[in-house]
């Protein structure tokens, strides 16, 4: 799957993030808990530099819990402040403020020594498309401060959001990077909907996902689609055909509508109807 997608507005977003970095005290970088490494924009390290940063594994409710704990330990060992949250329920949000205070400890102590009393901390929220930045901000703000949706590209411009007595948040549009050096990274992002389905071959994408699930989450796959062990040993395309047949994706002549079946599988994965799944683990 050779996918290159870097629309012009993302180059504009990259410049905007770089130019506004000097206005904030710290950065909250949202990652998708299902693909923590693949959902890290490699350009963010360069843009953020030495600015204090907290990594947030968002959508933790959709990921394999045990895998999320492994990832948290992995990032901690590399010196990052990291927490896992569910922006829909609010689970994990109590850990955010201590993490921010921890990464800003030296800066806040210097300010106190100089007699500076700040009323709020200015944060920039960054992440790739569809990682859940707007839902995260709305949960933090306790109101619908940012537009949300189940597709990438909802946030199209920067916006400041005030949270009384605590933070001023700079929300930014999702940004990918100019070229996917590793096709596996592009594939994982596409699985989660971080790249628009309109530019994807959904049947190929669905077959790739079924291949991964057969290898790593076979029991969940069998339970969701009432499959037999022998069916899981078939090719991913044959498996897609079996699922299409079982789910009534039939067109005239009794043929399987594989595009409809592919959309069904992707939707089931993204809606957690197959189960809580993590797409990658640390090396």
Automatic annotation (TrEMBL):
GTP binds at residues 58-61, 130-135, 174. GO terms for molecular function: GTP binding; GTPase activity. PROSITE patterns: G_CP. Residues 13-178 form the CP-type G domain. One of its GO terms (cellular component) is cytoplasm. Pfam families: MMR_HSR1 (PF01926). It is found in: Cytoplasm. GO terms for biological process: translation. Keywords: Cytoplasm, GTP-binding, Nucleotide-binding. Its main location: cytoplasm. Belongs to the TRAFAC class YlqF/YawG GTPase family. MTG1 subfamily. Required for a late step of 50S ribosomal subunit assembly. Has GTPase activity. This is Ribosome biogenesis GTPase A. The gene is ylqF.
């Amino acid at each position: 799957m050779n996918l290159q997608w870097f629309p012009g507005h993302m180059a504009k977003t990259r410049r905007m993030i770089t130019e506004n970095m000097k206005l904030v005290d710290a950065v909250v970088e949202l990652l998708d808990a299902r693909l923590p490494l693949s959902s890290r924009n490699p350009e963010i390290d360069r843009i953020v530099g030495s600015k204090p940063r907290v990594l947030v594994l968002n959508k933790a409710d959709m990921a394999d819990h045990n895998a999320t704990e492994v990832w948290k330990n992995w990032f901690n060992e590399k010196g990052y402040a990291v927490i896992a949250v569910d922006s829909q329920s609010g689970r994990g949000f109590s850990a955010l403020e201590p993490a921010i205070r921890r990464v800003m400890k030296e800066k806040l102590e210097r300010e106190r020594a100089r007699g500076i009393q700040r009323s709020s901390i200015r944060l920039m929220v960054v992440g790739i498309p569809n990682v859940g930045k707007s839902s995260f901000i709305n949960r933090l703000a306790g109101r619908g401060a940012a537009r949300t949706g189940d597709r990438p590209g909802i946030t199209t411009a920067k916006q400041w959001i005030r949270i009384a007595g605590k933070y001023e948040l700079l929300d930014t549009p999702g940004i990918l990077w100019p070229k996917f050096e590793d096709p596996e990274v592009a594939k994982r992002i596409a699985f989660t909907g971080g790249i628009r389905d309109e530019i994807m071959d959904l049947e190929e994408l669905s077959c790739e996902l079924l291949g991964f699930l057969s290898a790593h989450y076979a029991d969940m796959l069998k339970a969701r689609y009432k499959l037999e062990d022998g069916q899981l040993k078939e090719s991913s395309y044959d498996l897609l055909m079996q699922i299409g047949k079982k789910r009534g994706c039939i067109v005239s002549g009794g043929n399987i509508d594989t595009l409809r079946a592919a959309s069904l599988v992707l939707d089931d994965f993204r809606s957690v109807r197959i189960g809580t799944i993590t797409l990658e683990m640390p090396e």
